[in-house]
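for the writeup, i need someone to sanity check this before i put it in the appendix. the sequnce is what the collaborator sent (i think, or maybe the updated version? ugh). structure was predicted straight from it, no edits. if anything looks off just tell me and ill rerun, i have time this weekend
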Amino acid sequence: MHTHDISDWGHSHDFATADQADAERRTRWVVGLTLAAMCVELVAGWITGSMALLADGWHMGSHAAALGIAAYAYAFARQRGADRRFTFGTGKVSSLAGYTSALLLAAGALWMMFESLSRLIDPVEIRYEEAMIVAVFGLAVNLLSAWLLGHSGHGHDHSHGHGHAHDRHHAHDDHAHDLHEHDHHHGLADIRDHNLKAAYLHVIADALTSVLALVALALGLLYGWAFMDPLMGIVGAVLIGRWAWGLARESAQVLLDAGDNGEIEHEIRRRIESDSDNQVADLHVWRIAPAGRACILSLVTHHPRPVEHYHGLLSEITGLLHITVEVNQCRQPSCGAAVKERPRPA
């Protein structure tokens, strides 16, 4: 007969996936590629005396610093995945890094807007051929970086659901193997790695800037339309600003536990309330990692079952990484109606 000690009910809160490890590796490659491109442009600019190459080289340096935040965030989350100071693990580090990168993107968009408006008012001389060479080189680097980042996150995600369960007598279930689930599709738990998205947006924003610059430089070279250069800068600033706002809004929702969980909450209620006379009295679902969520569920029933039973009802919902169930026995004939009619908190 197997006996249990307290360690049988403990578990890790490290919810890292193979996709995140792959994303970290690819992000490091992109940082290295960007630093190499920076060195090439700085050396070439120093040898040729080209201010355009020198300026873009330092721009690549700032770009590498922004991507470095993404790489550091992955390393931080991985190294501290088992740190008990993080109650639900380090899954939100991705969203924190994404929010920080969104602020950097917004700052870059504001700088582009200011610089473009300044050049519309006070035009500067443009060395078209030299500037086009720099733009083509920058575009090639950013397209390669985007390809590297865009091809991560396609492996199989092996999610491990962990559950805590408490009934009125504080009984616990043996969850070491109860909710092991192999998720071969995203389903309700769509992957939202804001750190990876931020890194991808950085290189796409830079690639967009290079494309707009090439269009403006070509028109200026062929037709003498010098105003197209700052005009394209304004267009790029607006687009990048919109991307930054969207990323900041998405990542902030995760940081504030305010994401859209309506679909998965509906599925949890359906599975619980379709079994016996169970009624969901209280339900909290929030994202704790890019690949999944935590759930705290309180239910009322006339006929309580073992806590393993309720975990089993939810075990096939992908992306529930941490489940806590509270079972309350109703001793009145109409407790279900009372639960349904309970007003929502303001």
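The two ends are 51 Å apart (CA to CA). The chain has two domains: 17-153+191-255, 158-190+258-346.
thx in advance!!
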